[in-house]
Amino acid sequence: AFEELFAQTFSKKQNFTFLGHIQTCYRQKRWHDLLRLMQHVYKSAVNKDGKESETGLLIKEKWEAFGLRLNHAQQQMKMTENTLLFAFVEGTLVQAVKKGEWILLDEINLAAPEILECLSGLLEGSSGSLVLLDRGDTEPLVRHPDFHLFACMNPATDVGKRNLPPGIRNRFTELYVEELESKEDLQVLIVDYLKGLSANKNTVQGIINFYTALRKESGTKLVDGTGHRPHYSLRTLCRALRFAASNPCGNIQRSLYE
């Protein structure tokens, strides 16, 4: 609209450099400079002496209407200087898809249904991808050939846990991993947690014996303060080891005892 009015009022040939500067400001998104230049031309056009012909009056009315739009744009610019502006920021998953990185989605079965629905397109074989509808995209992202998606979940046996919808679950190659029970595996785990305490072999073996005995007794004899059978799992052991590793008592044996 500005360029059209400008051509009707001034010589484009004589102001070729100026119009080029207007285009540069627009391409570089220098909105303050652009509006200031337009405001300068608007004032010159309105105050320009010319024949009071019908054409001249019509052009002047167009400039005045343009001036209202220009003032409105300047007010919007001032308002945005003191307020928050929101922009779409690509998340970790989108970046992984584009760059060909590997990503792990933990506790995937606890995700909201709409999130899982978005993932379904990504799991449609090697050609699957995402469409960022929130950003207004209509075309899917270009998926890197090295992109890999992994997901973890616990069986839906605990309170609050649920299974994945079959349509999503069937698109994964599923591996079921049993809880660690062998003494060799437990030894590696315990040594890693207590590496800062330099625990000896007898201490580690004692923890293994105590843990396995607790697991066994919890199913037959032990009860908690409410009269229910306690549940001891690998998570219970890891939490206890993390506490002991901080050595709050200043003594390895006492911290393990606590």
From TrEMBL:
<keyword id="KW-0547">Nucleotide-binding</keyword>
<dbReference type="Pfam" id="PF17865">
    <property type="entry name" value="AAA_lid_5"/>
</dbReference>
<protein>
    <submittedName>
        <fullName>AAA ATPase midasin</fullName>
    </submittedName>
</protein>
<dbReference type="Pfam" id="PF07728">
    <property type="entry name" value="AAA_5"/>
</dbReference>
<feature type="domain" description="Midasin AAA lid">
    <location>
        <begin position="185"/>
        <end position="258"/>
    </location>
</feature>
<dbReference type="InterPro" id="IPR041190">
    <property type="entry name" value="Midasin_AAA_lid_5"/>
</dbReference>
<dbReference type="InterPro" id="IPR027417">
    <property type="entry name" value="P-loop_NTPase"/>
</dbReference>
<dbReference type="InterPro" id="IPR011704">
    <property type="entry name" value="ATPase_dyneun-rel_AAA"/>
</dbReference>
<keyword id="KW-0067">ATP-binding</keyword>
<feature type="domain" description="ATPase dynein-related AAA">
    <location>
        <begin position="86"/>
        <end position="172"/>
    </location>
</feature>
